[in-house]
Design goal:
358 residues, 68% helix, 2% strand, globular
Length: 358
């Protein structure tokens, strides 16, 4: 007697292997295009080209002390270019940043000298004043809806006039008094304006602060919720507000970061030269903005990095000192500035198109 046969369970065979289908939207872009998507790539290549150019045309640049001087010039621009770049990524400008540096230094100097206080008292009050100026700019932009260009242009004119008028009223001169013999000056100078030896070469402390601030800004942009908020409000503030981003806090805090940068550079100027000229700072805001733009920050906001402005500031320092070491007329610096700015805008336009091309 034959046993009934049991039905065998059906086993699905895996489909034949073949090329993975993609629809073009999920295809992995080539490495060159992915590199171009990084905002700092173009300025890095430009910085290398400028460095090589002056190494060839200006032999003194090859000296270690000359390079230390170039880095110092770059750091005084770069410390301010970093918060200005973050503000630009957030979709705003600050045209008062140049004179705000001088306002901060004047506040610390005159308060300490006129009231015969420890200079650290003036430093702390100057920080409060600088943050207040930034908060005012941010509040005005958010509250009124006016373009930050107009708001900070007004602040620029107010500070420029106040710097001159108040300094003349208090000191009877256009410059502050020398504070180098006051209590706390030596300690403050170590923090803001000292130098240290590296292989027999004197390097300014601002170079270290510059790199520390750049690393901190990069971490904030790429690894924190606040960094996401900056990109969001710069891209589309209405959409950002709709998904819960605190737009008002983000914009005001970014303006206050610019105030902090102005305070720090102002303290460096004060403790480097012991006195402050009240008419200085005009035009520096354009250099800070240009360093950020050259560093890959789009004028429309929502795009950029903290590393790019580091290379942008280095290009400025390199050109500014390289022209001197090459023995050329220093008046050409402004011409180089214009060429670099226009070139950076065109490169950024090409990079943004190439990065989004399929």
């Amino acid at each position: 007697m034959s046993m009934p046969q049991q039905a065998q369970p059906a086993v699905d065979r895996p489909p034949a292997s073949g090329p993975k289908q993609t629809d073009g939207r999920t295809a992995r872009r080539p490495l060159p295009l992915r590199l171009l998507a990084r905002p700092e790539v173009g300025v890095f290549l430009g910085a290398v080209a400028v460095l090589v150019f002056f190494l060839i045309t200006a032999p003194p640049v090859r000296d270690g002390s000359s390079m230390a001087n170039i880095l110092y010039q770059s750091s005084t621009i770069g410390i301010m270019a970093l918060p200005v770049a973050l503000l630009m990524i957030g979709g705003e400008f600050d045209l008062s940043s140049g004179v705000a540096v001088i306002s901060s230094a004047l506040t610390a100097s005159m308060l300490s000298y006129q009231l015969t206080l420890n200079v650290w008292s003036g430093v702390v009050v100057a920080l409060v004043v600088s943050l207040a100026i930034g908060a005012f700019n941010g509040w005005m932009v958010v509250r009124t809806g006016l373009p930050s260009f107009l708001v900070t242009l007004g602040t620029f004119l107010i500070l420029q006039g106040a710097n001159l008028a108040v300094t003349k009223l208090v000191t009877g001169n256009v410059a502050t008094d020398d504070i180098s013999d006051m209590d706390g000056f030596a300690q403050a100078r170590k923090v803001f304006a000292s130098s240290f030896d590296v292989g027999g070469i004197q390097v300014k402390i601002t170079v270290i602060w510059w790199l520390v601030f750049a690393a901190l800004a990069t971490w904030v942009l790429l690894r924190t919720k606040y960094g996401n908020w900056i990109f969001a409000v710069g891209g589309d503030k209405d959409s950002a507000r709709a998904v819960g981003v605190p737009v008002t806090f983000t914009k005001i805090s970014l303006f206050m970061l610019v105030g902090f940068g102005a305070w720090f550079v102002g303290m460096h100027n004060l403790f480097s030269f012991n006195t402050v000229q009240s008419g200085e700072g005009v035009g520096q805001e354009l250099i800070y903005i240009a360093a950020a733009v050259i560093g890959g920050c789009l004028l429309t906001g929502g795009y950029g990095s903290a590393i790019g402005p580091v290379f942008g500031a280095f290009m400025f320092g390199m050109v500014q000192q390289g022209i001197v070491y090459a023995g050329w007329n220093p008046d050409w610096f402004k011409a180089f500035l214009g060429v670099m700015l226009l070139g950076a805008v065109l490169i950024n336009l090409w990079v943004s198109r190439a990065a989004t091309r399929r």
